Amino acid sequence: MSLTTFFTELSGPQMEALFAQPYAAVALFRSLPPPARHVLLRFAWTSGEVSTALVSSWARPEAEGKLSGALRQLTALRLLSQAAHSGGAVYVLHPSFQAQLRHVLCSGLSAELVAPAAAVLPSAPPAPPADDLSEYARQQWEALLLHVVDGSSPPPALPPGLQAEAGRGVDVPALLAGAGLVVKCEGAFTHTITESGFRFLLADVYTQLWGVVRQYLAALGGAPGSSAGPDLAVALNFLLRLGLQAGRPMPLAQLGGAERTIAAHMAQLGLLLPASAPGGALWLHPTHLAAVLAGGGRSGEAAAGGEEGYVIVESNYRVYAYTTSPVQISILRLFVRVDALLPNLVVGTITRESATAALGAGIAADQVVSFLRQHAHPRAAAKPPIVPAVVADQLRLWQQELTRLGAQAATLYSRFESPELYERAVAHARQLGALLTSNPDRQLLVVPAGFHDAMRAYLRDRKQQLGLG
């Protein structure tokens, strides 16, 4: 899940409501690859309409594929559309998006992020050290991940002082179940992880955040495609504003009712750190997770770059993880057989049994390799390949072994009344594209179960024609 994927699910009115403020436009622009951003910057200062022939001339012949890919992506996001104009075809840029992009390019976001009533607000408390912000975000987010792994582990709690704004806070178990990451066990206070949940654990922080935020918005009643356009716009623009407001705390008293509730929930998830000013006023400091949310793709991953890698993988399938985090150890156990657990070191081995157990649970081999690369120890990252080729290739081979055979519902036909009826049945199945296999010697025919009704009707008609009924 990503911001661009989220936007493809929105309705037209929802996009209009989102682009009433610059935050969604900026975050979406940052999430796009360089060719798409280049195209949007070219469109920014036009009338909004550019002929398709002129757009095609923006790339050299060797880069036409990149330009075509960018245009397809922008069209899928409905930022660009094609229309007829003066006998020719033109690309049209979304007018509200163009207006916000121009505004930000000329004025920036600083004016938008300054509190309008700053003169009457109490002075902000001293900014917490960066290490404190990172530690708070890490603790809250790891509590959520650990709850995914172990349902008996407590989910992240609402910070003190915010109960009046959000009551009990986010119902994290219901949020995870709604996102399809876990399935609650009936009659027990625990759950089991789904295939999506396993993939979620191995995903990068940006993908994890957007997966949770999408479900959070759906729980608020602002799901993509619903009629709650203005509500979704308020919630999503506020969330994206948090990430674009790095280093600028916001007073809780300045926020509206809906924004206060969302802010309290985001503090529970680790995106905001609450701190009290000397006068007692509560201020909210965005953490690096908020920057990840609005960073977009690689920018979002870079915003989380404060977390140092800890995994070393050797060509003999040995894994060394310098960590004391219960979450990181639990995730490693998904595909690593733990051989020794020391105070600050986990020693394990990627075995056939441990790998196939993870692959059978729905985790892809490339996801395991990507996870190991993403969390590589700095010394291992400095000596490519980060994951030895023999380990990466073996994981893919084990995955191919699991997917080499597949099950498919089928129907077997036998005991045909005559060879002619059998031959015609085989010919008809081949004509339908439904012939799985046949055995002329034993007069056996196998077709997918979905074609049974068609084959049964054909055989009934042929029997009558041949007088075999």
Explain how this protein is built.
- The structure is a single chain.
- By secondary structure, the protein is an alpha+beta fold.
- The protein folds into four domains: 22-111, Arc Repressor Mutant, subunit A (Orthogonal Bundle); 127-303, no CATH class; 311-403, no CATH class; 410-466, 2-Layer Sandwich (Alpha-Beta Plaits).
- Helix content is 52%, strand content 13%.
- It has helices at residues 3-8, 12-18, 22-31, 34-44, 52-56, 64-76, 95-107, 110-113, 130-149, 163-166, 172-178, 195-202, 205-220, 229-244, 257-269, 288-295, 297-303, 326-332, 352-360, 365-374, 378-381, 389-403, 419-432, 452-466; strands at residues 49-51, 80-85, 88-93, 182-184, 191-193, 250-251, 272-276, 282-286, 311-313, 318-321, 337-342, 345-349, 410-413, 437-439, 444-448.
- It has a four-stranded antiparallel β-sheet with strand order 9-10-12-11, with no helix packed on it. A three-stranded antiparallel β-sheet has the order 1-3-2. Strands 6-8-7 form a three-stranded antiparallel β-sheet.
- The longest helix has 20 residues, at 130-149.
- The protein is globular, with a radius of gyration of 28 Å.
- It starts with a helix and ends with a helix.
Please specify the SSE layout and strand pairing.
Elements: H1 3-8, H2 12-18, H3 22-31, H4 34-44, E1 49-51, H5 52-56, H6 64-76, E2 80-85, E3 88-93, H7 95-107, H8 110-113, H9 130-149, H10 163-166, H11 172-178, E4 182-184, E5 191-193, H12 195-202, H13 205-220, H14 229-244, E6 250-251, H15 257-269, E7 272-276, E8 282-286, H16 288-295, H17 297-303, E9 311-313, E10 318-321, H18 326-332, E11 337-342, E12 345-349, H19 352-360, H20 365-374, H21 378-381, H22 389-403, E13 410-413, H23 419-432, E14 437-439, E15 444-448, H24 452-466
Helix pairs in contact: 2-14, 3-14, 4-6, 9-18, 13-16, 14-15, 14-16, 16-17, 19-22, 20-22, 23-24
